[in-house]
Design brief:
This protein is an all-alpha fold. It has two domains: 191 residues, no CATH class; 101 residues, no CATH class. Helices cover 75% and strands 0% of the residues. It contains 18 helices and no strands. Helix 3 packs antiparallel against helix 4. It is elongated.
Length: 410
């Protein structure tokens, strides 16, 4: 599962979660006493349209304005959480896919706003000073950006000032902290064990995993969210399956990057367990042919490709995923991308199959054991359209009765 595919998966989850959150907000806003600033709401609605069109730079400007124009005295806590979640999603997309993006005026303002909102009471921080209030006023008035305080004035802590040297890091920081702020408000309004909070935990876990490589924190958030979902939605809910896919992804990344071989093995087993449970739930729900199942199978195959005596299992998993995507016309683009990755992955697996065949030959395994291995390897080579491996395994099959037949390895 490559990075762009994972980003699209999590982007889809963000869109779905934000839509659900918007529905919840609409219901709440219909209740008496729930006040929302009209200007902020206008910015949010226009930002949603830009977000849906994929114009993330324009959308985040509007979400930032929606955040700044929230009425402090209103009780629109969930509405504010939705604004912050949308802003986080926009900044995530900008950080991931727009390397040439920069907007010093707007993004420095977002940093100042978040610092003021998230600082602990009585911390003595300088966020929220008159200088920053003037910055916000200038932004809303669309004044000349040259009149704004410099970046150094806004990022006056060393840990924050350093992110100006890496603009992508600034975008990541804003995305993470908008989501932290959204989750903080949801916990206060709905309680720490509510389903919307679980969604925000998962979103924040994805951000930690993608941006900061804070994999332990990401794993902890996914596990907390999993416990909430199992308690509130049941252990076989489709959202539990989505969580397990995310958890398995984080654990696999941790396994790939951990310095301790023993820890890598443990994380690898936990990743496989989460992904296999995800597939089991999907099977139970009649969703075994869904795109999530295909993604899950694809990720499992990348784990098994390097496991002892598991390359054929990896081939089987990739072929199952391949078949799902091939038959699903709604995901033609995903299938075309997956087809290229499938071919590369299958070739790796075929190399491992070759090693297993040679080991079996060297150990003088009987033909009855070699034949099934060769049949599966040949089928995988044909699916991958790799003529070199097709010829190799066919020649081996043809020469099985005669052990002295020698075939050149690819």
């Amino acid at each position: 599962m490559n990075l762009s595919q994972q980003n699209r998966i999590s982007s889809t989850r963000m869109r779905t979660g934000l839509s659900l959150l918007a529905s919840l907000i609409f219901c709440c806003c219909s209740q008496p006493g729930f006040a929302i600033d009209a200007l902020s709401q206008a910015y949010l609605e226009q930002g949603q349209r830009d977000f849906d069109r994929g114009d993330y730079a324009a959308a985040k400007k509007l979400f930032n304005k929606a955040a700044l124009n929230l009425e402090p005295s209103s009780q629109s806590t969930l509405y504010a959480a939705a604004v912050y979640s949308h802003a986080s999603a926009c900044y995530r997309q900008l950080a991931a896919f727009h390397n040439d993006y920069q907007d010093l005026k707007d993004d420095d303002l977002a940093v100042a706003f978040l610092r003021r909102k998230l600082q602990p009471p009585g911390s003595g921080e300088t966020a929220g000073t008159v200088e920053e209030d003037q910055t916000i006023a200038a932004f809303n008035a669309e004044d000349d950006p040259n009149k704004l305080p410099s970046s150094d004035a806004l990022l006056n802590r060393a840990t924050l000032a350093s992110i100006n040297r890496n603009y992508r890091l600034k975008l990541e920081w804003i995305s993470v902290n908008y989501m932290r702020l959204a989750m903080k408000l949801q916990e206060a309004q709905l309680g720490p064990d509510s389903v919307p909070v679980a969604y925000s935990m998962e979103s924040l876990g994805l951000l930690y995993s993608d941006f900061d490589s804070q994999l332990e924190e990401a794993e902890a958030l996914f596990r907390k969210a999993l416990a909430i979902r199992e308690s509130k939605q049941g252990k076989s809910h489709s959202d539990v399956a989505l969580n397990l896919y995310g958890l398995g992804t984080v654990l696999k990344t941790a396994s790939d990057t951990h310095a301790d071989p023993e820890a890598r093995g443990v994380l690898r087993k936990e990743s496989v367990a989460a992904l296999e449970r995800c597939l089991s739930i999907l099977q139970e729900l009649g969703l075994s042919k869904s795109i999530l199942a295909a993604r899950c199978l694809g990720l499992l195959s990348t784990i098994h490709i390097t496991g002892p005596l598991e390359p054929l299992r990896a081939v089987d998993e990739f072929e199952d995923a391949y078949d799902i995507l091939k038959k699903d016309s709604a995901h033609k683009k995903a299938f075309n991308e997956f087809k290229v990755q499938h071919k590369n992955q299958a070739n790796l697996a075929l190399g491992e199959c070759t090693r297993l065949v040679v080991q079996a030959q060297n150990s003088r395994a009987p033909s009855s054991q070699l034949q099934p291995l060769l049949s599966r390897a040949l089928a995988a080579a044909q699916r991958a359209d790799n003529q070199v491996y097709i010829d190799y395994f066919q020649n081996l099959q043809n020469g099985l009765p005669n052990r002295r037949t020698r075939v050149s390895r690819p």
